[in-house]
Design brief:
- This protein is mostly beta strands.
- Strands 11, 12, 13, 15, 18 and 20 form a six-stranded antiparallel β-sheet that branches. Strands 7-6-10-9-8 form a five-stranded antiparallel β-sheet, with no helix packed on it. A four-stranded antiparallel β-sheet has the order 14-19-16-17, with no helix packed on it.
- The radius of gyration is 20 Å and the shape is elongated.
- It has one helix and 20 strands.
- The protein folds into two domains: 125 residues, no CATH class; 100 residues, Jelly Rolls (Sandwich), CATH 2.60.120.
């Protein structure tokens, strides 16, 4: 029995799957040029039902530099009996017409169900990543203290200041796993989502001042707004703060 068929029988009690269902189809990085997804069962908005199977990896043709590619799955023959087929597109996803959790289709084409997003570097190669079953999408084998993952370098703002993370956090994410590095011996750092003003009493992550020469490093999840931005501030000034994006929670 195929894995996708076993999943369907194991988790779906009949042929009418709940709207928005997705089991498996986990993001897979095969190489800097090849993207894939694991076997699974997925609900397609235009079909009003699921397709199941193992999709073949894809090699997007001449991907642009420094660009998000959104990976979709669709039925090869336009029916629920079709083979799951992958597509990578720069067209962003949008929520189902009748919202169902985080389920999204390709904008303007409900036959394409959103799976994940991958980003190219300055040479048109896909940054390596790994994603677990809970949707933790991690950048892998990258210099996270360098561009574009370091989204703030030597920040010193003493009032709430916006930081754009959209180069390494896709439009579908609302939660970021962040590294905060503080090198100041006098200034604490406070970070929050971009839709909330950061203050020393209203924040999601704090990185205290360094007790002696060196640095304090804090890791943690933090919310981001719909534009994938954060807000930060240094409490008293004179400090230097660095923000590095390590991972994000995938919504799909």
């Amino acid at each position: 029995m195929r894995l996708a068929e076993w999943l369907k029988r194991r988790f779906l009690t009949d042929d009418t799957a709940p709207v928005g269902t997705i089991i498996g189809f986990n993001p897979q990085w095969t190489s800097s040029a090849v993207l894939g997804a694991s076997p699974g069962v997925v609900y397609i908005e235009s079909l009003g039902g699921t397709i199941s199977g193992t999709p073949v990896d894809i090699t997007p043709s001449s991907p642009s530099n420094n660009t998000w590619y959104h990976v979709y799955v669709y039925s090869s023959d336009g029916t629920t009996a079709g083979t799951p087929t992958l597509e990578a597109s720069t067209t962003a996803p949008v929520a189902f017409a009748t919202p169902a959790g985080f389920a999204r289709s390709k904008t303007g084409d409900t036959s394409r169900r959103y799976l994940y997003s991958a980003r190219t570097n300055g040479s048109g190669q896909f940054y390596q990543f790994a994603c677990d079953q809970q949707g933790l999408f991690k950048w892998k084998n990258q210099n996270l203290s360098g561009s574009p993952f370091r989204v703030l370098s030597a920040g010193s703002a003493t009032s709430s200041t916006n930081v754009d993370c959209s180069a390494v956090v896709p439009t579908t994410a609302r939660s970021i796993f962040l590294e905060i590095v503080n090198t100041s011996t006098t200034t604490g750092v406070f970070v929050t989502s971009g839709d909330v003003t950061a203050t020393s009493t209203d924040y999601e992550l704090e990185c205290a001042a360094v007790p002696a020469a060196g640095a304090i490093i804090v890791f943690g999840f933090i919310g981001c707004d719909a534009s994938q931005t954060l807000n930060y501030l240094n409490s008293t000034g004179g400090g230097a703060v660095y923000l590095d994006v390590c991972a994000f929670n995938l919504q799909r």
